[in-house]
């Protein structure tokens, strides 16, 4: 008997465990009910409840924590309370039915009976349970579970064998624990779908049947939650993962999916049961952890759909934003995309390495059509994904309680990734390009509502935001025109007030562009260089393979290394194509330009505070006093504009609209005209590059996308030419070690813009006015232009001479020339050819510009400090083209270098003809003792005439010019003979010529001619004798010496005249010995 009691007590222990959760007051009939262990799952009754101190099961994912038994009774939500002492039977009492259901029941016993029968059938159909062991299938052929325990209790109590709401919880527990329909949660979700569909079809809430179904639905949901929070109730071990997570991925219409009704019911119970919120948020956190390990090659779309469905419910969205996983503290930049709640969704991109390989396998063997189609498919996929990301983010933004959280998340993605713009970027320490591009695109779309065409809300963007503890960190950013000390001092003064959403998202988006799309663009350029370098290395390695042919082990190592390089190259090509596919997306770039247009107008308003731009026209130059708020802005405000439009004007100019063209033109001209507003010369050169790309011919626009507005817009005709000339002067020194070559690239781009606008006579008239009103400025420009012409012509001609000589040597090489010598000469030849190609393009443009400017402004090129250098340069190059050594410039395949000697001769002769009426120019040519040769003019005329390079009228002008120069030469020779040897006191120490207007240099006390020192200062602002800074207004006229020189010249001429007269009177011939 004792043994039997012991055995029974073991069974009772299992029952008692459940009764602690399920038991309540006795039923209405006062009789207790027995609840045997579920027969379909005997093992479940022996599963002990895990101890609360026991470690959770080991799993890759953090284990899901089920509800502890010590927590408050969860059954309060279904109308039951635990007794102090567990009984041997389960007693479950549902909530009393609503009052409107019970009305009239006492009078209608027959109706009572019919409702109970209907309830039995309905509950059986919904939960697929039966109390009849012979009734195993319903009318639709679905298998029914025989609830043996419920039947036994009803029989013991002498009650009718019918399923009612009073016995439903016991039936649910028994059926779910049996696992006959799969896992308990799978079974209950199917029941939930059925009961929800039935309730939706019932519209009369006073109908007693409605109360039955509603109660069944309430109980069904409660038990769904219990399967997750109290799994041991159903004989299940605590799961390692949240069981609801997998159901969030299933289609909501599927029996295993979480439908709208389920989530709505969950939200409705948040206040009553905190565990519902925890379970659902935990499920979404788990999905995020799973998604963090996936790419676009995997089945990621169900995760996006789950999140989109989830955030549709405001309480769920708020709960998600309050999760500790939403933005953990101190998360590293590289982990933002896999350890925050939204990161895994934003990291999905075709720019991920394995995805790029999938889109562009074997990229070097594919034709352009295949690549274009792949990029189009890539863009379509990404656009859909970004639409979904925006939908998710916008849901957080719309709700006040979650808005701050997601703005903090966006800010962290920007602030943590400053290293993405470092010179050397370690990809392992920053977020990926795909992640940051997606962040940028979503922020762009959040800006769209306030970026209207009339800029009606632009005054809502508050510049004081940066002095009000902003989310965006700018302490370490380079400022537009302020050093660190000035910036720190400015931002140390805080301002009051609150920040509106427009300001918040505007500053976040500008920063995101800098660290997102523009950083990706920079990385793309570097990656292209890296791949080219690898390809060169591979080519060098492959020709060395034969050296290892005799050693199999070394050959294997060699081949393995070659394979690694080939794999790197393939991956690099794929990433390049994928990145280009993403960055060349017209839709996202159009949004980007819309933002940049707003940034442009906002900046122009900032630098012209007294004007209501764009309603009031902009005035240049800008005020001398720069607004401190502008000076202390992060440099990336301008850099984003420059980088963005440099990319668009080069690769996709067709998407720029006419209104964007005007604003783009204005910002470029404004900051080139008032260049002192910007400290970084490369930002200013970027503005020139935008204009240069903008005048490239594109389909349907011969002048490019900016050419028309630059050609005819009033703002451009007033200020463009001066702005270009000013930066032409400034770029002489950029401060970088590459400044010598940078200036030629910049000036080449300036020439192309000038060439585009030159046909407009308004520009030439304005240039003439500029030369008269701002003489020193224009002379400085002309001097630098001459420096460039002189240098590039000399470099080009030197390169052609080298090519000519080396080619001749290699063609007629001596028999004793060894291989090393030949290789050395071939390398020299290749270097000379490369040099010729580089300089010749610039040479053609520079000489062409000289021709245009001398034609329009001849007087400006004949000023004393300019004319001599110009004349000597022209004589030197004319001698090189037609003189005795002209054969040295003859090379094979001259067109490959852009070299056309006849065209060059024609251009140089045009410069001569443009100045043919300027006496000072003729005298300067004539006095060029180094390069002027009268026979060169004769030879040049023959060539011009033979190849019809000039019209008869021009040839006649050329001949007359040659005669005037020869006459001037004779006259100068006579004057030199008259003066004889010049005393050292009167000789210019730099030019070794007679001084006309001597001046004293203040620091070195040296005396030089005014034209000499003025010409020197145009290129070098220092005293040539001691390198002390010097300006032309500091020199002191040496009037005493000037008077001496004048007197000496008068005396010498008088003596010479007297000598001639004496010689003429005697009739003796002049002694010329």
Describe this structure in words.
The protein is mainly alpha-helical and 1073 residues long. The protein is built from 41 helices and five strands. The protein has a three-stranded antiparallel sheet with strand order 4-3-5. A hairpin with a 6-residue loop joins strand 3 and strand 4. Helix 17 crosses helix 18 and helix 19 packs across helix 24. The longest helix has 38 residues. The protein is elongated. It starts with a helix and ends in a 7-residue tail after the last helix. The N terminus and C terminus are likely disordered.
Task: Note the total helix count.
Answer: 41
Distance between the termini: 158 Å
Note the beta-strand portion. under 5%
Mean pLDDT: 84
As a whole number of angstroms, the C-alpha radius of gyration is 45 Å
Largest sheet: 3 strands, antiparallel
Number of strands: 5
- The low-confidence parts are 1-63, 67-111, 1069-1073
Strand order of the largest sheet: 4-3-5
Q: Structural class given helices, strands, pairing?
A: mainly alpha
Shape: elongated
User: Percent range for helical residues?
Assistant: 55-70%
């Amino acid at each position: 008997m004792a043994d039997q009691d012991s055995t029974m007590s073991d069974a009772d222990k299992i029952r008692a465990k459940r009764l602690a959760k399920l038991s309540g007051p006795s039923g209405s009939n006062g009789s207790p009910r027995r609840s045997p262990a579920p027969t379909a799952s005997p093992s479940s009754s022996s599963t002990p409840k895990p101890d609360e101190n026991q470690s959770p099961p080991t799993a890759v994912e953090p284990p899901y924590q089920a509800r502890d038994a010590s927590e408050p009774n969860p059954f309060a939500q279904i109308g039951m309370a635990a007794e102090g002492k567990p009984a041997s039977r389960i007693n479950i009492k549902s909530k009393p039915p609503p009052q409107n259901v019970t009305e009239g029941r006492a009078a209608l016993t027959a109706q009572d009976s019919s409702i109970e029968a209907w309830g039995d059938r309905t509950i059986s159909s919904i939960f697929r349970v039966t109390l009849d062991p012979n009734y195993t299938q319903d009318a639709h052929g679905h298998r029914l579970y025989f609830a043996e325990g419920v039947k036994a209790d009803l029989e013991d109590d002498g009650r009718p064998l019918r399923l009612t709401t009073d016995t439903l919880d016991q039936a649910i527990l028994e059926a779910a624990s049996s696992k006959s329909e799969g896992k308990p949660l799978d079974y209950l979700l199917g029941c939930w779908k059925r009961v929800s569909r039935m309730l939706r079809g019932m519209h009369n809430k006073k109908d007693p049947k409605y109360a039955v179904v509603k109660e069944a639905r309430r109980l069904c949901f409660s038990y769904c939650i219990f399967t997750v929070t109290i799994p041991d109730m159903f004989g299940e071990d605590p799961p390692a993962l949240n069981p609801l997570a997998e159901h969030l991925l299933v289609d909501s219409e599927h029996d295993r999916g979480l439908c709208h009704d389920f989530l709505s019911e969950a939200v409705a119970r948040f206040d009553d049961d905190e565990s519902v919120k925890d379970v659902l948020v935990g499920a979404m956190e788990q999905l995020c952890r799973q998604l963090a390990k996936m790419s676009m090659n995997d089945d990621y779309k169900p995760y996006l759909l789950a999140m989109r469905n989830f955030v549709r419910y405001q309480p769920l969205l708020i709960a998600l934003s309050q999760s500790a996983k939403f933005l953990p503290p101190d998360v590293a930049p590289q982990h933002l995309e896999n350890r925050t709640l939204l990161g895994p969704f934003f990291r999905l991109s075709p720019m991920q390495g394995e995805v790029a390989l999938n889109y562009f396998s074997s990229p070097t063997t594919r034709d352009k059509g295949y690549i274009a189609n792949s990029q189009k498919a890539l863009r379509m996929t990404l656009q859909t994904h970004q639409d979904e990301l925006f939908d998710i983010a916008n849901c957080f933004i719309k709700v006040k309680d979650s808005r701050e959280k997601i703005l903090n998340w966006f800010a962290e993605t920007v602030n943590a990734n400053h290293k993405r713009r470092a010179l050397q970027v370690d990809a392992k320490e920053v977020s990926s390009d795909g992640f940051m591009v997606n962040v940028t695109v979503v922020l762009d779309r959040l800006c769209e509502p306030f970026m209207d065409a009339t800029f009606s809300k632009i005054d809502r963007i508050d510049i004081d935001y940066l002095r009000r503890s902003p989310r965006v960190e700018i302490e370490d950013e380079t400022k537009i025109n302020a050093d660190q000390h000035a910036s720190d001092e400015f931002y140390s003064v805080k301002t009051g007030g609150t920040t509106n959403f427009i300001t918040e998202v505007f500053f976040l988006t500008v920063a995101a562009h800098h660290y997102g799309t523009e950083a990706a663009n920079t990385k793309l350029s570097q990656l292209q260089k890296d791949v080219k370098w690898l390809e060169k290395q591979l080519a060098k390695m492959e020709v060395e393979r034969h050296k290892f042919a005799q050693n199999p082990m070394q050959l294997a190592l060699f081949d393995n290394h070659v394979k690694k390089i080939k794999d790197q190259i393939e991956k690099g090509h794929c990433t390049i194509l994928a990145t280009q596919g993403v960055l060349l997306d017209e839709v996202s770039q159009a949004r980007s330009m819309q933002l940049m247009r707003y940034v442009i107008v906002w900046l122009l308003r900032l630098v012209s505070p007294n004007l209501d731009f764009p309603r009031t026209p902009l005035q240049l130059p800008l005020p001398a006093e720069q607004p401190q708020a502008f000076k202390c802005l992060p440099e990336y405000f301008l850099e984003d504009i420059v980088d963005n439009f440099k990319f668009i004007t080069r690769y996709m100019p067709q998407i720029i609209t006419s209104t964007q063209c005007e604003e783009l033109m204005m910002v470029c001209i404004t900051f080139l005209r008032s260049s002192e507003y910007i400290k970084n010369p490369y930002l200013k050169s970027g503005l020139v590059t935008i204009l240069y790309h903008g005048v490239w011919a594109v389909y349907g626009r011969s002048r490019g996308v900016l050419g028309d507005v630059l050609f005819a817009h009033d703002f451009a005709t007033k200020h463009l030419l001066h702005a270009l000339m000013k930066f032409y002067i400034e770029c002489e020194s950029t401060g970088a070690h590459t400044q010598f070559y940078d200036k030629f690239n910049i000036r080449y781009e300036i020439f192309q813009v000038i060439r585009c606008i030159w046909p407009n006579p308004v520009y030439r008239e304005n240039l003439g006015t500029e030369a008269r009103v701002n003489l020193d400025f224009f002379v400085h420009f002309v001097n630098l232009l001459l420096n460039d012409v002189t240098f590039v012509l000399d470099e080009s001609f030197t390169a052609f001479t080298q090519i000519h000589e080396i080619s001749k040597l290699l063609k007629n090489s001596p028999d004793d020339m060894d291989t090393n010598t030949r290789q050395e000469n071939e390398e020299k030849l290749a270097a000379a050819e490369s040099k010729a190609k580089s300089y010749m393009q610039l040479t053609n443009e520079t000489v062409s510009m000289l021709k245009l400017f001398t034609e329009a402004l001849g007087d400006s090129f004949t000023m004393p400090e300019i004319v001599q250098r110009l004349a000597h340069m022209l004589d030197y190059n004319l001698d090189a083209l037609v003189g005795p050594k002209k054969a040295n410039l003859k090379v094979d395949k001259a067109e490959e270098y852009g070299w056309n000697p006849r065209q060059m001769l024609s251009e140089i002769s045009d410069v001569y003809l443009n100045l043919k009426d300027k006496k000072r120019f003729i005298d300067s040519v004539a006095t060029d003792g180094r390069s002027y040769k009268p026979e060169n003019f004769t030879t040049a005329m023959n060539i011009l005439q033979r190849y019809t390079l000039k019209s008869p009228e021009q040839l006649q002008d050329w001949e007359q010019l040659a005669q005037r120069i020869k006459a001037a030469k004779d006259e100068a020779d006579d004057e030199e003979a008259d003066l004889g040897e010049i005393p050292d006191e009167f000789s210019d120490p730099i030019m070794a010529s007679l001084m006309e207007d001597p001046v004293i240099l203040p620091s070195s006390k040296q005396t030089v001619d005014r034209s000499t020192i003025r010409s020197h200062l145009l290129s070098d602002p220092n005293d040539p004798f001691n390198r002390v800074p010097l300006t032309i207004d500091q020199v002191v006229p040496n009037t005493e010496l000037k008077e001496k020189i004048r007197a000496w010249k008068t005396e010498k001429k008088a003596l010479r005249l007297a000598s001639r007269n004496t010689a003429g009177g005697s009739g003796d011939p002049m002694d010329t010995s």
